[in-house]
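Support case: user asked for a sample of complex input and structure output to validate their parser. Sending the pair below.
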Amino acid sequence: MTNYLNRIKNLTIILAVLVFTNIPVNAIGQDTLAGDYNMLVIKTGLHIIKETVTVKGKLDIQAGAKIEFTDPGVLICEGEVLVNGNASNKIEIYGKSKSEGIGLVIRGLDNNTNSKVDINNAVFSGLQLPLFFDFGWKRSDVKITDNYFINNIGKVTVIQVLNPPFNLNIDSSTINFKIDHNLFSGNNAAIYFEDLKSDHVNIKITNNTFYGNHIYGFKNYNISTNILYGRADDAYFRYAPVIEKNSFAYNYLVDNIADTIVHAANFGVYGTGKSIGLKNNYLGSVNKLQIVKGIYDQAINYNVPKVDFEPFLTKPNETNPSHIYSINNLDKTILPDTLNSKDPLKGFILMANNGIDYSKATLKFSYFKDDSSTKKMDTILKYDIQPNGLEAKFTITSNIIGAKGNGLYSLSNILDNKGNYVPDVKLGFIAYANDLRRRNLLAEVLKSIIIADSIKKPIILTDSIKNTFQKIETPFKSRFEVGLLTGGSIFLGTISKKGSILGNDMNMLLGVHINYLLYSNLSAGLSIESFKLSNSDAKSNNNEQLARGMSFSTSILSFSPSINYDFVDNRLYSKARKIKPSIGLGLDIVSFNPTGVYNGTVYNLQPLGTGGQYSDSTKKPYSTLAFGYFLNFKVKYQINKTNSVGFHMSYHVSMSNYLDDVGPDSYPSVSTLLKSKIANKDAAIYFSNPTAKNVVGQYRNSPDGASDSYLNFGFFYSRKLFK
Amino acid sequence: MYIKSTILSVTIFLILGTILSCAKTDITPPLQFQKQLLAGTGSYQNTQHVWQLDSTKIDGTNITLTTSQKNYKKTFTFDGGYSDSDNNTGKWEITILNKLKQTIIYQSISKQDSTVYDIISINAAQMNLSLKLSNGQTAIYSFKISN
């Protein structure tokens, strides 16, 4: 009994597993697909694939579905593939902008002998590799019809078909591989068949439009740099590919490095076969010489098959997806694809294979703003249109002003009469791309010059203190700058006219200056200056000073280190930055010796003790060496890299009150002066109180704010001694 | 090039201007300086000097001064005016160094007379004047400033 129950239990589990594994997973609405599926149905709505999704059984993508592939998203199909949209409700399979995913990979042997690949009414765009039939794949039938492969970014292939794993001698089954009525436009890569001639894959490529694809490669035109290419070996003879009624127009090889058009690129073949048919196709021109330029065959390389392209169509069939297949001048001559549109275009005639609706079309003109830079300007042009069957005559009515170099005309938003997408038309693209390349090269050269230059002059970023004070890489001796300075000095201390700088004595100043660059905007300086300070109370507008009647004159020798902030990078020399202001702080070490004239003789005032320093035992004579500090401002004009001139101004405050000999001392009495040991008492008496006014209990100078100060200003010339 | 030469020209011009506008040291001649010691410079609150008699010597002998003599003061104004504490008025002038000529109008007797003193010494606080008296003796008057 127990065994019987166990058997029922095990059987139930097995049945349940079998049932569940065969129930397809339905993905409806927005969904992120991930992992493995035994079967997958993708219905209308947005579905996102960000990683490898494997469908081991049937994949059914239904009309209205949108599948977004984000790198490295890829959908691997190991079973039947049905991508069935309809003309009014297409399936969109696209790569996410700036993070484009891969696409669909069809691989493996499907055990179901009726398994097929049927892809129709789908739009593949922005993908790295939209369809990839991986080596060893096998399905009973492949139909890729009525699809749009537009603007896919991958540079490998748009559709890549590798060989299925047939036993060449035994297996006689066939895969019908049909690519019919698809539009391939704006793609960066080719459609590649490992074997175009095959014993097992019957390839039919018919009624397709290959328009405006740019196959990326290198400058040399070869087999693989065509929109359609593959091998044609004599080893296979059962099925030759049928490539008919297709339209190939404006397909080019583009140089990977230069990004410029190199060569027309329609069809390429290789292998041991003697020839391959490419008859009854429109090959971009009615001129045979033009046609052969876009075919890589025996005419270029005698080791490869010959392409039999005659007879060729002189225009595409109406059954091809709609496109503009020819662009003419207004006089109906061919407008060459090498059009150099330096002169404004007056108009053009477009010829399409189907009725085209231009009602929403916009004509844009892109041009460069100057002769050498990459600055672009886009402008929408107005035009008149005159339809004439499948022709349309465009007459441009806008004036183009200020265009420099080669311009590009782009006609976009074109639909056919059924409302289907029609590829954009570009005029002058080749010349425009070449001009853009030239400008990019020029920009790179300029950039490299700037980079080289910036080794000496690092780029200044002003958004942080760290960047403001950048280290200087120049040699030690090159950081030095020496200069001579001259000008005037004005005493603004005790004996001076307050409130009027120029109302005081001005004396000449001479000095030398050494500057050392510490950082990009910071420098250290040392000035040695010799000047005279003098002044008289008689110049004052203050009654007490007038009554006091003192005057003095002193020679100054100052030794002044400073630190300066340079508003402009001190390493920089450019015509735009010749004027360089700076501000700084410094210390003064000042030697001074105030003098006065008494009865025609100049006396040093310090030894006279005019403030009672020698007659009052509580006082000491002042030192003739004083410290001070100053605020400095300079404006430098850089004549060239080594020489500069400029204006300097500095306000100095002395820590001594005796630069003018008049400190905050009470007037000494005449009697004490007479009793002192001063050598010249007459002079001492006079200088202590020149006007002999009644000074009992008074101070010679107010003890408050007795500090002496002075202003130095003038001009300097400086030079870098070493480069 | 034009900018450089302009800047150079302006710089030279300004440097020269600065040099030319520098202060010059004025030295007062001894005669003028003596006048200023005696009577002031004429600047604010320095328009006159008052000298008070401090001592007197006749032929080298100190004369004891009475209280009123000790209070005797001469006032010299910078513009040449003279007055003293005896209410006499007049003029003063120094045309020759160390020679002080006083023209005095004696108030009490309404008589004008002039006297020339030798300035033995003068500084900002003290002045010694010498006068040959009519009896042949030499008087030395010492004054101290008394502004």
